[in-house]
Write a structure and sequence with these properties.
The complex is a heterodimer of chains A (about 475) and B (about 600).
Chain A: E1 2-3, H1 9-27, H2 30-51, E2 57-62, E3 65-70, H3 71-94, H4 101-120, H5 124-142, H6 149-180, H7 185-191, H8 196-213, H9 222-228, H10 231-255, H11 263-283, H12 288-313, H13 316-347, H14 359-362, H15 364-377, H16 384-398, H17 402-429, H18 436-440, H19 446-464, H20 470-484
Parallel strand pairs in A: 1-2
Antiparallel strand pairs in A: 2-3
Helix pairs in contact in A: 1-2, 1-4, 2-3, 2-4, 3-4, 3-10, 3-13, 3-19, 3-20, 4-5, 4-10, 5-6, 5-10, 6-8, 6-9, 7-10, 8-10, 9-10, 9-12, 10-12, 10-13, 11-12, 11-17, 12-13, 12-16, 12-17, 13-15, 13-16, 13-19, 13-20, 15-17, 15-19, 16-17, 16-19
Chain B: E1 2-3, H1 6-27, H2 31-57, E2 62-67, E3 74-79, H3 81-104, H4 110-132, H5 136-154, H6 161-192, H7 197-203, H8 209-226, H9 235-238, H10 244-253, H11 258-270, H12 276-296, H13 301-321, H14 325-353, H15 364-367, H16 369-383, H17 389-404, H18 407-433, H19 448-463, H20 468-478, H21 489-498, H22 501-525, H23 531-537, H24 542-562, H25 568-588
Antiparallel strand pairs in B: 1-2, 2-3
């Protein structure tokens, strides 16, 4: 642990939301949000530059608080900023004229800050603290449309289930502290032995954080929350919030590496279960945002499998693929939610697949973006999802383990299954006879078009030039595997 | 991009040119400009692709390397005899299909037309990429990309539920087969630490036996799905909802050949796997027979041709199985040309008459005399009548089958030849030779561009067999692992004429034609059992099987939905129950 002499950009990256959130809320100036985001981008880029060429795992001590900046935290910060910025700008026209916008803007900034905090926490206390911040902001955003009963119900479910998860995590932390006498992740790592108390703590982390990460069967809050939230928030929930839960889980679990040999296998099992359950639940879904929500459950399965491969076998490529899929999924899912959300604004109500019939006439960019997103989620080239899945599968087969290879085959078969609901969605958009909504829908703000077009470019760009982010994913994958090394 | 040699630029252009055209045509909003730009892009692509021929003809192997960096490594392309042959077919027939579309899709709204041309052009580039790459990751990339184009084009008329169903079916079935390719590629790449074909073909012996067998059968499954072979054949007839130029290009001349190409490309590596070659032969024979029988059971002109494609692809797969790699690709060339001719002529008929049902096609001979001749030439080449391209290539396959393959399989292929003649005569009888009903309205004439394209393909049908010598020479020079030998045209024709297979094949053809001619009379005397047609039309039991799989999947999905109760209490029970299960799993698994 190096003591802090000159505050690294990372500290400021966490500081901006702390200052920015009250400012945005109290002054009601929307441009302040954009200024805050822009300054966070500058600091993020400085962090990346500062991080390059250093060992992948950097620990700082800031006022007695241990802060980690390894590849994983950096990657999460990058994804959070990207999706967060897209969602924030997208929300400018999305919420135009609605009451309580300043609340929304402040909460988005808080959400991005909490995700970055979760990625940087170096001890269990701060991890839990950031994680709770994340839960509360996300809950407020899910229930943003308080006047709608369904949104309130979704918010309450989300809050209660998160609280149950948090309680379990807290119990896990208590057990860990009891057994090891420290909350510092590195300290726990040194002190942990295979006692029943720590086994229980590990499983409590898996389930407690797993609620937020939407592991099946803890995912039951997700379809309501993702479909009832404003679309910008759905993109954030799907793109980074559940992933932040996953990475928090991994952070806590990595400290307990010595406790059980089965953590990696547990990830693989949850991955396989998430894939099958998510896809089956999405298959007969007709409401588009719910369908996309279930698809997130399934897509998380690929990340779990990739990371599980890395953890069980030490194959960096697996963890790298899992994290690359985290990025590509965030881009594709954000694209999908934002495109659907924009069309829903135009049509004036939430959309079923039938409502999207012929939407390409009126909203060609949205339709193209949505079809690219869902076909990419189904793993078709030249979109980003194809290559991240390939990387996961390739490293799985490379382990030479028959069981892992079987999981890979199952995962690949699930991609085919998922096309059975993605493809009809894309087809519906290109019908010639438009549905009533698509025919009479209002024109859309150009901001929507710009954001969706940019995300679509990212989805194709990563599908054609995957090496772009290799620097980021390789460091993160290596850090993750190193954290789980015995 | 690191380019080695000027010829490598050509490789890049064969793929990137049509893609650039696709992007541009998608952006246009005027039908005239879209037609023009699509034709220009397709023509340029064809010219560039043909430019590869002289460069590879002298035995040179052009390569192109794309360094992706990091863990992705270098992705490589290589142009050899096999890949140039297939990419030339894709580009030239692609261009012809695009010209044909100018007439066929006249009057389509610009938004749809832009999407149509964009997808066709993306397909042409992807197909060239598929055959020109020599890297397994890229192979899988392009393999899936052509599937995407195929699906989107089958479902092009999105308001027609049959089209949407057909597209989805094609996508799911070929993707399921694609799993085999995925696993095969990964197993090979893992075993050798290298995804390039060159390494694999040279060091196939170093791959552990089990892994090699897994890859060999994985590739076979993928090939069978892509080339609509038994038991995956049921998607191809349903794919006929696509616009006819797409059926001609993707579902007759190019994409469906990818499976045969895959088998031929990796034949030298897989032939040592016990049972693999036999499995290839069995799949080929079954497909040749099943396709022929299915062709007899339908009245839809395009479905007849689709089933015939299944059957002809079966001939090619059979040829690979008996080791006749050159003959399989030679027939692939002939088939691509005459089947494109048949499809486009059929498209012209459908365009004029507005129906695909052969029962209502009486006026073709009277009103569309030129198209009738085209159909006749195409059908005769399909049957394998002497001096047409189908004759030479089919005889080359049968000759090889007789000398190198099992006798029973050869006999079954003769039955296939007989069936081909039978369904071709049936089709000609119903479409061309039947006299028109007196009160049927006159059919409007075919647009010039469509006739012109058919004429070009007809010329190809008459002459493409003359290319045997340069193709075999290129194969010998550029495919070091395949052990194919150059043959001169006189030698080849002498061998075919003197082969014992020739009289047998001619007899089978004659028998088929006679049965076809007497069919009406025979059907009156010995009517077939009523369920037979339905059984054949449903792919001999495969269709009910597909339906069963769909029902089970949907039933499971409906059951899964019931777990989402919406009750918060149950959700919390799920969380606590989940913890208990995990705790038990970890404690029990602690020994691991």
């Amino acid at each position: 642990v190096t003591s802090l002499t000159l505050a690294p950009p990372l500290v400021w990256l966490l500081g901006v939301p702390l200052v920015g959130v009250p400012l945005v809320y109290l002054t009601r100036r929307r441009w302040l949000l954009l200024v805050a985001l822009a300054s966070m981008w500058v600091l993020f880029i400085l962090s990346v530059i500062a991080n390059a060429g250093t060992p992948p795992r950097q620990a700082y001590q800031i006022g007695g608080v241990p802060v980690l900046m390894d590849g994983v935290g950096l990657l999460l910060a990058g994804v959070a900023l990207t999706v967060g910025t897209a969602a924030a700008i997208y929300s400018l026209p999305y919420l135009a004229g609605e009451r309580g916008r300043e609340r929304y803007d402040a909460l988005i900034l808080a959400l991005i800050g909490s995700v970055i905090g979760v990625g940087c926490a170096g001890d269990l206390f701060n991890l839990w603290l950031w994680f709770e911040c994340l839960s509360v902001t996300a809950w407020l955003l899910v229930a943003f449309h308080q006047e709608r009963g369904a949104a309130l119900e979704a918010g309450i479910k989300y809050l209660v289930q998160s609280a149950v998860g948090s309680a379990l995590v807290l119990m896990g932390i208590a057990l860990t502290f009891w057994e090891t006498g420290t909350l510092d992740l590195e300290g726990i790592r040194g002190a942990a032995t295979a006692t029943l108390g720590l086994v229980a703590a590990g499983t409590l982390y898996v389930i407690g954080f797993g609620v937020k990460a939407a592991l099946v069967p803890l995912h039951t809050w997700l379809p309501d929350a993702h479909s009832q939230a404003p679309s910008g928030i759905s993109a954030l929930l799907s793109g980074i919030v559940i992933e932040a839960g996953l990475l928090a889980l991994l952070r806590a679990l990595a400290a307990l590496t010595a406790v059980s040999l089965s953590w990696g296998w547990l990830l693989l099992v949850f991955g396989a279960v998430n894939l099958c359950a998510g896809n089956l639940l999405a298959l007969r879904q007709s409401e588009v945002k719910r369908l996309l929500a279930y698809s997130s459950v399934a897509q998380l399965g690929y990340m779990l499998i990739g990371i599980g491969i890395g953890v069980t076998s030490g194959e960096v490529g697996g963890a790298q693929g899992g994290l690359f899929h985290l990025i590509t999924h965030a881009a594709m899912k954000a694209l999908a939610f934002l495109a659907v959300g924009a069309m829903a604004v135009g049509v004036g109500h939430s959309l079923t697949i039938a409502d999207l019939g012929g939407a390409s006439r009126k909203y060609p960019v949205m339709a193209l973006g949505l079809s690219m997103a869902v076909l990419g989620l189904g793993g078709l080239p030249p979109f980003a999802g194809f290559l991240s899945k390939w990387q996961i599968f390739a490293s799985g087969v490379a382990t030479g383990d028959a069981l892992i290879t079987a999981v890979v085959v199952l995962a690949a078969a699930n991609s085919v299954l998922s096309l059975a609901y993605y493809a009809p969605l894309a087809n519906a958009l290109y019908r010639r006879e438009p549905s009533a909504g698509a025919r009479d829908g209002a024109p859309l703000a150009p901001t929507f078009t710009v954001i969706v077009a940019l995300l679509a470019l990212v989805v194709v760009g990563l599908g054609l030039v995957p090496g772009l982010l290799d620097g980021l994913t390789e460091r993160a994958g290596a850090a993750l595997v190193a954290a789980f090394a015995r | 991009m690191q380019v080695m040699g000027a010829g490598a630029t050509l490789i890049a252009f064969t793929i990137l040119l049509p893609w650039a055209g696709a992007l541009a045509v998608w952006g246009l909003r005027r039908a005239g400009a879209q037609h023009g730009l699509a034709c220009a892009a397709a023509t340029l692509t064809a010219l560039v692709t043909l430019g590869l021929i002289p460069l590879t003809a002298n035995g040179e192997r052009l390569t192109l390397t794309l360094p992706l960096g990091g863990s992705w490594g270098d992705l490589t392309f290589a142009a050899d005899g096999l890949s140039v042959l297939l990419s030339a077919i894709a580009a030239v027939i692609g261009a012809l299909a695009v010209y044909f579309s100018v007439g066929y899709l006249h009057g389509t709204p610009p938004a749809d037309l832009g999407r149509y041309y964009a997808l066709v052009l993306i397909f042409i580039g992807a197909m060239s990429g598929l055959v020109l790459t020599e890297h397994l990751l890229l192979l899988f990339f392009f393999w899936e990309l052509v599937a995407l184009c195929s699906y989107a084009l089958i479902a092009f008329y999105g308001d027609n539920p049959a089209a949407v169903r057909g597209g989805l079916k094609a996508l799911i079935l070929t993707q399921t087969g694609g799993l085999g390719l995925l696993v095969g590629c990964l197993v090979i790449g893992t075993a050798l630490g290298d995804f390039r074909y060159g390494t694999f073909l040279a060091k196939a012996g170093d791959v552990p036996t089990g892994a090699l067998a897994l890859a060999a059968f994985g590739f076979l499954i993928a090939a069978a799905a892509k080339s609509a072979q038994v038991p995956f054949h049921s998607w191809l007839p349903d794919a006929m909802e696509a616009p006819t130029p797409v059926s001609a290009l993707i579902h007759a001349a190019t994409m469906v050949n990818a499976g045969v190409y895959l088998l031929a490309r990796f034949y030298p590596a897989f032939v040592t796997v016990p049972g693999w070659a036999d499995a290839v032969v069995i799949i080929g024979v079954l497909s040749a027979l099943v396709g022929g029988l299915m062709s007899l059971a339908t009245d839809d002109l395009k479905r007849v041709l689709a089933c015939s494609t299944i059957s002809q692809l079966g001939f090619m797969v059979y040829a690979v199985g008996v080791g006749a790699v050159f003959a399989s690709q030679y027939h692939l060339l002939s088939h691509a040309i005459f089947k494109a001719l048949l499809f486009l002529s059929a498209g012209a008929v459908i365009h004029s008459l507005g129906t695909r049902d052969m029962a209502h096609m009486g006026r073709v001979r009277a009103d569309l005399p030129f198209i009738s001749i085209m159909l006749l030439v195409g059908a005769l080449a399909l049957v394998g009548l002497p001096m047409l391209n189908g004759f030479w290539s089919k005889e080359a396959i049968l000759d090889a089958g007789l000398s190198q393959g099992a006798g029973a399989a050869f006999l079954a292929m003769l039955v296939g030849v007989c069936l081909t003649a039978l369904y071709a005569v049936r089709m000609l009888d119903r479409v061309v030779f039947r006299s028109p009903a007196p009160d049927s309205p006159a059919a409007p004439p075919t647009p010039h561009v469509m006739r012109w394209v058919c004429g070009a393909l007809c010329l190809g049908t008459l002459t493409s067999w003359l290319l045997a010598e340069p193709i075999s020479r290129a194969f010998e020079a550029t495919l070091p692992f395949h052990q194919t030998f150059a043959v001169s045209l006189p030698d080849m024709s002498a061998e075919i004429v003197e082969s014992a297979a020739l009289p047998l094949a001619l007899a089978a053809m004659g028998l088929g034609a006679v049965i076809g001619g007497l069919r009406g009379w025979a059907m009156r005397r010995w009517p077939l059992p009523g369920g037979w047609r339905r059984f054949a039309d449903e792919g001999f039991g495969v269709e009910p099987l597909n339906r069963l799989v769909i029902r089970i999947t949907q039933g499971t999905a409906d059951m899964a939905r019931r777990t989402q109760t919406g009750h918060l209490n149950w959700n919390v029970v799920g969380i606590i129950g989940g913890w208990l299960v995990v705790m038990v799993l970890i404690v029990m698994g602690g020994a691991r």
